[in-house]
Design goal:
Layout lengths: L32 E2 L5 E8 L6 H10 L4 E5 L1 H6 L1 H9 L3 E4 L12 H19 L5 E2 L8 H9 L3 E2 L4 E2 L8 H9 L7 E5 L5 H14 L3 E3 L1 H4 L5 E3 L4 E4 L2
Parallel strand pairs: 1-11, 2-3, 2-8, 2-9, 3-4, 5-6, 7-8
Antiparallel strand pairs: 10-11
Helix pairs in contact: 1-7, 4-5, 6-7
């Protein structure tokens, strides 16, 4: 079902207070990680393929008292409403990953608005609230997509630690990639519907839990106001 787009790229609904005046000509960046002294990280999943491992992933996350963020594609949401509800009911955040996984840098403003709003609509039908966060399909963002996201009060999220599970890496390869790169404020990328991801996730969370990390949703990790983003996409609170 198509959603009527009522919001344009002008006239922002939400004003985010930044440390410095925004330069409209500069390249905008999403949030890749967060500067924090707390040992908190965000585990994220991009959901666009199957949903067969939903219960298994939820069980592993619960075992480690971990809350994750699932960035769901609208097409996946329509096919797997039960999986969306199960993740949400287990305390996990549901984020927007576009409606059809269209590359934002290759389409115009109206298509970006349609992709974001339609996915929000599908998710809200199931969980009763609109997503607060979005991840660009394939991490392919540009200024116009970030501007629209900001104008409707959402935050665009990338990652600083990539499991590369979609490349069908072994459990040990994924484990090494993640545990050797994670630091306070990291955002870690996984995918659901990948063969070795559940076993690797359990092993990774076991190690990071022993190291004192807490696993929170993206919305809980990031700063929503009074912040700046450096050239690497790290979000800092204003001082």
């Amino acid at each position: 079902m198509a959603v009527m787009i009522a919001l344009g790229f002008s006239g922002a609904m939400t004003v985010t207070k930044l440390c410095v005046t925004a330069d409209n000509t500069a390249r905008k960046l999403p949030i890749y990680s967060v500067e924090t002294d707390e040992r908190k990280i965000a585990i994220t999943f991009d959901a666009a393929w199957s949903a067969e491992d939903t219960d298994e992933l939820i069980g592993i996350l619960e075992k480690h008292n971990a809350k994750a963020t699932v960035f769901a594609v609208g097409d996946w949401v329509r096919k797997n409403p039960g999986a969306v509800k199960n993740f949400y009911d287990a305390g996990h955040e549901i984020g927007n990953h576009s409606d059809t996984h269209a590359s934002f840098s290759k389409v115009g403003k109206e298509k970006i608005a349609e992709e974001i709003e339609n996915c929000n609509f599908e998710i809200e039908k199931i969980i009763g609230e609109k997503p607060k966060t979005i991840r660009a399909p394939s991490g392919d963002y540009d200024n116009k997509s970030i501007e629209f996201t900001e104008n409707i009060g959402m935050k665009m999220i990338q990652w600083d630690v990539d499991s590369l599970d979609w490349k069908k890496l072994s459990v040990d390869e994924m484990y090494s990639r993640v545990v050797n790169k994670v630091q306070n404020g990291s955002i870690v990328l996984f995918h659901n519907g990948v063969k070795n991801t559940p076993v690797a996730l359990d092993k990774i969370l076991t190690k990071l839990e022993k190291d004192g990390y807490e696993f929170v949703t993206v919305s809980e990790l990031i700063y929503w106001d009074d912040y700046e983003i450096d050239h690497k996409g790290k979000q800092f609170p204003c001082k």
